[in-house]
Sequence to fold (295 residues):
Amino acid sequence: TLSLHDALPISVLVGFGLRQVPGDQCLWHGVFDGKSVYILLQVDDFLVCSPEEWYNKFVAYLWSKGFEVKDLGLASRFINVQITQNPELGMVTLSQEHYAKEIVKSCKLEKCSDKATPLNIPQLSPDMLKKCTKEEHSEYRRVLGEVMYLQTMTRPDLAQACSFLSQFLEAPLKWHYVELRRMIRYIRATVDRCLVYGGQYENPKGIAHGKMICYVDSSWDANRSVSGFIVYRCGGPIHWSSRKQKMTTASTAEAEIVAASDATKAVLALRLILRDLGLEETDSTVLFEDNQAAI
Fold:
């Protein structure tokens, strides 16, 4: 990991033979002496994956261009994500346990009982249908924003709950606030959950080791259904989503087709990024869908 005191102009990276990946402008790629080099750039912080010899040359190059470079050593934390590397098992773990604990602490729920699920729509009494107070509304927006970052980075299990609760940001009712607090209690029970890549894992039968796969589903609703999908590669999730569909569907099968279409677009985008990184998937990506009519 590298850290600079100032943001780095694109021309500096281009001048060292690196190329910006079209599908993600924070990603840079290059090939040197037949070996690929990858850089993830976030303002003035770098996450570098390269041979050590190239890395040392790159650091020297940045110094020669007048940039103050701080070498943070083997990556252990990047954009608030804890990185644990296990070369012996060929495994990388991404965790935000520290961040999850901070969220629980900020809500003063460290000593509350745990919950097994993030959401459970209750029977709505008249009191639960009242509007939140100004203080509760402010806390609702703040906490949900913090949890959204958590689920975006490392917690796909929170995607559906975040998507649902974020619909009421402008005018949450009491029961929305109660459900938000329940989600925090669920996070408290699962703070140690993380993403694991590599190591010993099994792909579904007939799919080669290390290939990308996708699971997709939908929940039909007479107004607008919800699509959900999760994409795996090298044993761990690399992309996920849970959101309302943009159109009204007339049946469960139609909702499942729309969900599969959304998932396919995401998979195609990921395949293009992998191609630009020199990691092209030559086989078709399998989508797992549980609706026979849609299939």
Summary: The mean pLDDT is 90. The chain is about 35% helix and 25% strand. The two ends are 45 Å apart (CA to CA). The first helix runs from residue 10 to 15.
